[in-house]
Specification:
This protein has one domain: Glutaredoxin (3-Layer(aba) Sandwich). The chain is 33% helix and 20% strand. The protein has 6 helices and 8 strands, in the order ααββββαββαββαα. It has an 8-stranded mixed beta sheet, with helices on both faces. It is globular. The relative contact order is 0.22. It comes from Albimonas pacifica.
C-alpha cells in the first residue's frame, strides 16, 4: 500500500466518528473554500458522450448512475499537463480503493490507449474513447461547464443520478481533497430527479 493511500485511509477512518462535523449539504462550499482548484457546478445537464472501451464494449454514463464517476480527458498533444493529472488521479484511486468507497466510484479516462483495467475484473478504472467525436471535442464540450475559462485539463466529478457536481482543475490540487470530496459525495443521499428527468425517464 502506498503512503498516500495509507494516509487517506487513516484520515477517513479517523474522521468517521465525527459525523456531526461532516459538511453535508455544504460540501461544495466547504471544498471551494479549502481547495483553489475546485469549482462547484451543480448541473443536471451534461454534453452527450458515447464511449467505447476495451474490446469495443460500449460505456454509457447512464449505466453508471448509481456510482460517483470521476471523468478525465487526455487528448492528443496535451502532454505533461494531462500526464501529471493522470498520475495524480492514480494516487487518488489508490487511496479510494483501500476504503469501502471502492465499489461506489468509477474512474473514466477518455483518451490514451484503450486497455483493460490493470486490476482486472474487480477494477474501477476504464480507459475509453469517444465513439462519434474526437477526444479534444469531448473535452471541450465538458470544459464548457466551467466558468473559469482555463486551458488546464479538468477532472469532472459526476454525482449519483447523473448530476455534474464539480471540477478539479489541472494537477495542482491536493490529492486528499479529491479523496475527501468523493467521500462526501458517497455519503450524500442521491439527488432527487428534477421534473425534466422524470419526464424524459418516462420515455426510456
Amino acid at each position: 500500500m502506498s503512503l498516500p493511500a495509507l494516509f487517506a485511509l487513516l484520515l477517513l477512518a479517523g474522521a468517521a466518528p465525527a459525523a456531526a462535523h461532516h459538511p453535508g449539504e455544504r460540501l461544495d462550499e466547504v471544498m471551494a473554500e479549502k481547495e483553489p482548484a475546485f469549482e462547484p457546478t451543480d448541473s443536471r445537464r451534461m454534453p452527450p458522450l458515447a464511449l467505447t472501451g476495451a474490446e469495443g464494449a460500449s460505456v454509457h454514463l447512464s449505466g453508471l448512475a448509481d456510482q460517483i464517476v470521476v471523468l478525465s480527458f487526455r487528448p492528443d498533444g496535451c502532454g505533461a499537463p494531462c500526464a501529471d493529472q493522470q498520475a495524480l488521479l492514480q494516487e487518488v484511486r489508490e487511496a479510494v480503493n483501500v476504503t469501502p468507497m471502492r465499489e461506489m466510484v468509477q474512474f473514466l479516462t477518455v483518451g490514451g490507449d484503450v486497455a483493460p483495467d490493470p486490476d482486472g475484473e474487480a477494477a474501477n478504472w476504464r480507459s475509453v474513447m469517444p465513439s462519434d467525436e474526437t477526444v479534444a471535442a469531448a473535452a471541450a464540450a465538458f470544459a464548457a461547464l466551467s466558468s473559469r475559462g482555463t486551458e488546464a485539463p479538468m477532472v469532472h466529478v459526476i454525482d449519483r443520478g447523473g448530476r455534474h457536481a464539480g471540477i478539479f482543475h489541472g494537477a495542482a490540487f491536493r490529492r486528499i481533497n479529491l479523496v475527501l470530496y468523493i467521500n462526501g459525495r458517497t455519503n450524500a443521499p442521491p439527488p432527487e430527479p428534477g421534473l425534466l428527468d422524470r419526464l424524459f425517464g418516462a420515455f426510456r
